[in-house]
Amino acid sequence: MQISTSSYSTHWRRPLSVLCLCAAMIGCRTVGTEVAGDGTDTVTNTVTSPVTSEEANPAPERPANLALSVNSHRVRAPDNIVIETTPADAGYTNVWERLAANLTLYQNYSHPMIEEERLTYRGNQLYFDQIGTQAAPFLYWIAGEVESRDLPLELVLLPIVESAFDPTAASGEYAVGLWQFMEATARSFGLERDWWYDGRRDPVASTRAALDYLQALYVQFDEDWLLALAAYNTGEGNVRRAIRRNAREGKPVDFWNLALAGETRRHVPRLLALSSIVADPASYEVELPPIANEPYFEAVSLEHQLDLSVAAQLAGLELDALKALNPGFLQWSTPPDGSYALLLPNQSVSRFTDELGRLPASGRVTWNQYEIKPGDTLSSIARGLGTSVDVLRQVNGIRGSTIIAGRSLMLPRAPGSSLTVADFSSMPSVSNTANTVSTNVPARYTVKRGDSFWSIARRHDLRSADIVAWNGLSLDAILQPGQVLLLRAPTYLADADTGDSPGVVHYRIRPGDSLNRISKQFGITVADIASWNQIDPGALIYPGEILTLQIAVTRDIN
User: Fold this and answer.
1) Cβ proximity of 324 and 458 under 8 Å
2) What does the DSSP assignment read for 154-176?
3) pTM, entire model
4) Sheet of 546-550: strands edge to edge?
């Protein structure tokens, strides 16, 4: 077996087709503006399903040359924030300091909307502690990737806004990963997804794809980073329509003057607010947890399938720690087709490569053999063995669905497992997916100091996005010690369900809902809803989000 620990880009599997901008949106999408039937313009702040039509977001050809020239040697920012002119990676022991000294969009930090966002972060040390924990493995590498393209270092902080630096985060609109890629956009930028692997969850592959997309948007919007960031959030079609409308009306066409959806109008200021806090955290009464300005992980290329538990043993790591660095792998092993890269902490690479070199081929993955019986189908076999039809096709080279009684199918089995095909055949059918929840997960969990959605999800083999949804929270919510979280999905009654506590209802917001409408529907007050969900009584609410209501469900939900 040949092993390589050279640069990630040499070994990472990316399609060779030309990348193009995709109509599907990325992250949490909002519809910004619509043209009414009478030709007048209307504006809505309602979050809807992702824009996917080519009419809404026509897909232009990807610019042939995305090389950008971004001046990274500013000397002074507003509010007495001094920007160093030293090379970006020189002389820093802390990645936060490296970022602070080389930010480039500071001329935008003084807008009133940014100040509003800064106030929400002021003094919120628990939030920055949580972000520091989740960003620690990846921040140095992402900073280097952004610098290598000569892009603004503010982009390094975008995963805070998108996912709170949780690579397993998933939105209600099915955006996934650090950078919240929608599936169609992910495919356009070379991110693979199948039963074994999801490139949107891969911190390295998704970062490169996201930066490709942002660079393309920057070129498309005349080298205006605020418009590029807005388009990243809401889709380039929505931004172009807003620009055309302002131009027709003789209004400015910069980001601050466009009639975009409310979520997008907060998204860009939030990133700039975080950037200004990173530049001067003491002024906002927070301390950024130190993250060493040195590589945390290295990518090791694997030329053959390898069970992840075996990989963890070879590297001297806990399996959870290995999975946390490699969340793109959805099953118990790396995919069986071709080579993949495995991320390992730097200190574990030497041991892993030595041990892997001594590992016999039979120790990587072992196989069971199943003899096909009359009446068997791929789907019935897959159900009985707790796998999927796709896996059976992949590992046995089957193109269609035809199988012949008397022949054998090969089934991968983790090394050291005592289970046989006979054992599997006697088991009840199970659904073997990436989101299977262990039966020993408690119904509730009491938050401890230092906990985050990410750490709780990893501990119980759950997804952060599911915990957030079940508890009616957001990914950037701050967890408090003693807070109780639901770790199992509630059972819904229509659009509401009774919670685990008597009188508690979790209500999924529908299109057209408002706090006032919901309050009348359940006979409660807007003030109570706002208090129970820690939101402003005048806040906008979006379809798909969940509100916690302290009532008993005694009527149908109309």
Assistant:
1) yes
2) GGGGHHHHHHTT-TT-B-TT--B
3) 0.61
4) 496-498, 504-508, 546-550
Q: How far, in Å, CA of 516 to CA of 204, rounded?
A: 44
Query: Two tokens at 297?
Result: 């992980």
Is 433:386 a contact under the CB 8 Å cutoff?
A: no
Contacts of 244 (CB under 8 A, 6+ apart): none
For the chain, residues with pLDDT lower than 50 are: 1-88, 416-439, 491-500, 552-558
Q: Tell which residue, 395, 413, 304, has the closest CA to residue 357.
A: 304
**Which helix (DSSP H) or strand (DSSP E) does residue 411 occupy?**
strand 408-413
- Name the residue type at position 435: N
Angle between helix axes 203-220 and 225-234 (nearest 10 degrees) is 120
Cα 98 to Cα 82, 86, 169, 273, distances in angstroms: 13, 10, 27, 18
CA gap 85, 152 in Å, rounded: 14
**Residues 94, 179, 73, 115, Cα dihedral to 10°:** -90
CA–CA separation, 472 vs 336, rounded Å? 38
**Count of residues for the chain?**
558
What positions carry a catalytic annotation? 162
Largest CA distance in the chain: 79
β-sheet bridge partners, residue 2: none
Give the model's pLDDT for residue 47: 30
Tell me the per-residue pLDDT of 302-313, one tens digit each, with 9 for 90 and over.
988 898 989 999
CA 338 to chain centre: 25
* 3-class SS of residue 508: strand
**H-only helix segments in 330-408:** 346-358, 378-385, 389-396
Burial of 197 (0-12, 13-18, 19+ CB in 10 A): buried
Closest by CA to 239, choosing from 12, 57, 35, is: 57
* Rounded Cα distance, 489 and 453, in Å: 15
The pLDDT value given to residue 326: 96
Q: Which pLDDT tens digit goes with each residue over 200-231?
A: 999 999 999 999 999 999 999 999 999 999 99
The three-state (H, E, C) secondary structure of 16-79, written as one string: CCCCCCCCCCCCCCCCCEEECCCCCEEECCCCCCCCCCCCCCCCCCCCCCCCCCCCCCCCEECC
pLDDT at residue number 325: 96
The contacts of residue 5 (CB under 8 Å, 6+ apart) are 298, 299, 300, 301, 349, 353
pLDDT of residue 369: 66
Q: Give CA separation, 503 vs 325, 445, 455, in Å.
A: 40, 20, 30
Mean pLDDT estimate for the chain: 75
Report residue 510 as tokens.
């529908």
